[in-house]
């Protein structure tokens, strides 16, 4: 979340579900300090798709990658 872009689009009281794979380093992707300033609650749900539906999550990732490659003409 970036206050320069998201701040004007996300209202106070909004919820941000952080579902990416568990970070291996810093938690890039969500600016937690900016979220707090904007009144946006960040809910940690790291790796939630893979934990609850690993086959479906894997298929979704595969399909996304195939679509991206197709769009790039690879």
Main beta sheet:
2 strands, parallel
Q: In angstroms, what separates the terminal alpha carbons? A: 31 Å
SSE topology string: EHEHH
How many strand elements?
2
Order of strands, main sheet, comes to: 1-2
Question: Given the C-alpha coordinates, what overall shape results?
Answer: extended
Q: What structural class should be given to the helix and strand makeup?
A: alpha+beta
Helix content: 40-55%
Oligomeric nature of the chains: single chain
Q: Quick check: average pLDDT?
A: 76
Radius of gyration: 15 Å
Question: What is the count of DSSP helices, taking H or I runs of 4+ residues?
Answer: 3
Runs in which pLDDT lies below 50 for 5 or more consecutive residues are none
How much of the residues is beta strand, in percent? 5-15%
How many structural domains?
A: 1
């Amino acid at each position: 979340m970036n206050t320069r872009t998201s701040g004007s689009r996300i209202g106070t009281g909004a919820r941000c579900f952080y579902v990416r794979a568990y970070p291996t380093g810093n938690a890039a992707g969500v600016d937690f300090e900016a979220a707090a300033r904007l009144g946006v609650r960040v809910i940690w749900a790291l790796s939630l798709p893979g934990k609850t539906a690993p086959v479906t999550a894997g298929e979704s990732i595969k399909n996304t990658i195939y679509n991206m490659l197709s769009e790039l003409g690879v």
